[in-house]
Amino acid sequence: MSFVSFIGTNDMKTTSCKYKLWVTMFFVLLAQQIALGQEQNLLKEAKKYCMENNYLKAIEIFENLWQKDKKNIQIAYYLGVAHLQSLHKEKALTYLQIVEQQSPIFDTLLPFFLGQACQARTEIEKAEYYFENTLNLLKDKPQNEYYFLEHKISAQTILQQAKKYLQECKNAKKYLQEPTNAQLFNLGKNINTPYAEYAPVVSADESVLVFTSRRKTLEEDRLDIEDKLPYEDIYISYRVNGEWTPAEPMPFNTRTHEASIALSPDGKKLFIYKDSNEGDFYVSERIGERQWTTPKPLRYNINSKYHEPSMSITEDGKTIYFSSDRPGGFGGLDIYKVTQNEHGVWSEPINLGPTINTPYNEDSPFIHKDGKTLYFSSEAHDTMGGFDVFMTEFENGQWTKPQNLGYPINSTLDDIHFVISADFQRGYYATVQPNSFGEKDIYVITMPKYYAEEVETISFQMAAKIMPLSFLPAIANASDKAVFILRSIIKDEITNQVISARMTLYDAEKNEVVEEFNSVVPVGNFFTVVNSGGKYILSIQKEGYLFHSEHFEIPKENRNIEKVITILLKRIKVGAKLDIRVYFDYNKATLKRDAVAALEKLVAFMHINSRTKVEITGYADKSGTPEKNQLLSEERAKTVVNYLIMKGIDRNRLKYRGGGVAKPEPGADVSDAKQRYIDCHVIDMD
After folding, report:
1. DSSP label at residue 352
2. For 138, which of 162, 336, 381, 434 is 20 to 30 Å away at the CA?
3. What is the greatest pairwise CA distance in the chain?
């Protein structure tokens, strides 16, 4: 008889059911063990990312684990603390409060992290409560050590941090109770995306905006292997008719990180940061209207084996301010400067000293066009939390005490990479706001103490106006910040089309060049800032056109003034008179010192228009005999021709003659001094 025959039918069914139940339980337990093992592996992986300070990736894993088990307060704790190390610190509070509600004594450091989370959410009184609680918990345990996200931290360090955060809360209360009238405006969809945009740099006339973004590109494989986000790329936008054009990627972006750090005031040099040697500076130069050279390493005694994340250059290009964590500083990142001497040699880096630098981080310096007003971000001084933006001025050989720009420019989160317009009226930086498109967005700030005024015309030679546009308000009650802005557009006299041109601004009193620039971005526009109370000559040159000069005197003003002019250039033709006058002393044919600026314009004209021939005519006043006046007028013309030859102009392109006694226009009140001059005409264009 077989073994089976001893078992009844019912017994067989019962045994079969028990077997199936056992198998089911086995696989359930096995699945649970596998799931638990997978969760443990994921948790281990997340902790590994925390050890590497890659909190973005760690948060992604913690979030995944939390969605699967929302009763696991350990994961909630990890998630909250990880968010405190990220850009979005404000997200930490939700998770840390869950931990507090379910287990108030879950971890000794819980109040410390709750304080940081409340501070990030600008819940200042709650933050103070938690920081004070932290001080009470640890005041008798200064030698203890604790762990958070695989990092060891001493009780002494936590006590120091809690005291610092408590002071930041007090600072925040002060600034929140006395907000400035600054307003923040998102630059819109042409600039910002759901991804991170930050580190804006702006030309002094606000016609060019360059910034960094981690937006997606068509190359989907271009992801950072560490955080799995798109690499940093640099983008550029131009302001046309008051609007920013859609941002375009710079041609030199690579398959690694590039970030914008500075733009020279004239918009001609772009300084960028590349991940090499712990981070180095490179420079690209604009060629043509919207073309840029391949970036080359900056060789101004700045780059080192240490970390240099940001810099700014003065208007004259002879001083660079930068941040670095090199040894010998006050701690963390410090701000340094290098200067160029008259021989073109750059100095060794000079630390700006304890007025600016602290044991914490100072970063993101920006030197204003005036060369003496410095903006920077700091984790110290009287910050509201994280980095705040500060302003200092160089006066009497030293930097003034840094001033916090206040709320709402500064917040309890990081406020950094701030730049400001030449007229001090608008600032630009990246921040996270309720109306952001996603991550950090770039905003423009109407600065405090400014207000819009009606257009006012000041009568002196050319129209000068207070900024008439609503987004270009005038400064009030700040004579030390008043600037004079010279802005214009160049057009063809006949077609009225905007054209590019070369321009030179001279200081007529010092007889020296103030600035040379090209009106190429946008085409035909130019912009500069000059000191009030001076006399200037603006010379415009373009091939195929007569050169044009504007002589003007800037009055002393304690408000921002903008000189707005439209210049119509005339095409060269035979017989055209060039806009040049050189005057002579009585009975002399030698050049006066103030003649150089005018003659240099003529030299430039001859070089630009290399086929043009001119005739120089000299004149004398009526004090001498006709014969003497004829000879003297001829000698004056010959002196000018000799100067041009000395400057490299072919003598075959030059003729001169004496015009004798000058004949003033009918009715003109011309002094004898104004009759001793030369003028110039085009005689050939072949």
Report:
1. -
2. 381
3. 158
Amino acid at 245: T
Residue 212 contacts residue 253 (beta carbons within 8 Å): no
- Token pair belonging to 553: 């005197």
Give, as one character, the DSSP assignment of residue 499: -
Kindly report, residue by residue over 71-122, the tens digit of the pLDDT. 999 999 999 999 999 878 889 999 999 999 999 989 999 999 999 999 999 9
Residue pair 485/423 in contact by the 8 Å Cβ criterion: yes
303-306: which pairs have CB atoms within 8 A and are 24 or more residues apart?
303/277, 304/277, 304/278, 305/277, 305/278, 306/278
Indicate the pTM of the whole model.
0.69
Q: Kindly report the backbone phi and psi dihedral angles of residue 654, in degrees, each rounded to the nearest multiple of 5, phi listed first.
A: -125, 135
Give the distance from CA 383 to its chain's centroid.
Answer: 21
Handedness of CA 153, 157, 159, 162 (dihedral sign): negative
User: Closest by alpha carbon to 427, among 418, 435, 436?
Assistant: 418
Band of residue 521 on the pLDDT scale cut at 50, 70, 90:
very low
158: which residues sit within 8 A by CB, 6+ positions away? 109, 112, 134, 138, 146
**β 373-378/388-395 pair status:** antiparallel
Per the CB < 8 A criterion, the answer to whether 599 and 640 are in contact is yes
CA distance 678 to 628: 16
Q: In which band, very low, low, confident or very high, does the pLDDT at 407 lie, cut at 50, 70 and 90?
A: very high
Rg (CA), the chain: 35
**pLDDT recorded at residue 664:** 72
Contact 625, 663 (CB under 8 A): no
Question: How far, in Å, CA of 379 to CA of 330, rounded?
Answer: 13
Give the range with max mean pLDDT: 434-438, 451-455, 641-645.
641-645
pLDDT of residue 656: 95
Crossing angle of helices 9-51/55-68, nearest 10°? 160
Residues in the chain: 686
- The DSSP result for 68-109, as a single string, is H-TT-HHHHHHHHHHHHTSS-GGGHHHHHHHHHHH-TTS-TT
Mean local confidence (pLDDT), 422-433? 86
Sign of torsion, CA 51 56 62 65? negative
Give the pLDDT confidence score for residue 75 in this predicted structure. 93
Is the dihedral angle over the CA atoms 48, 51, 52, 56 positive or is it negative? Answer: positive
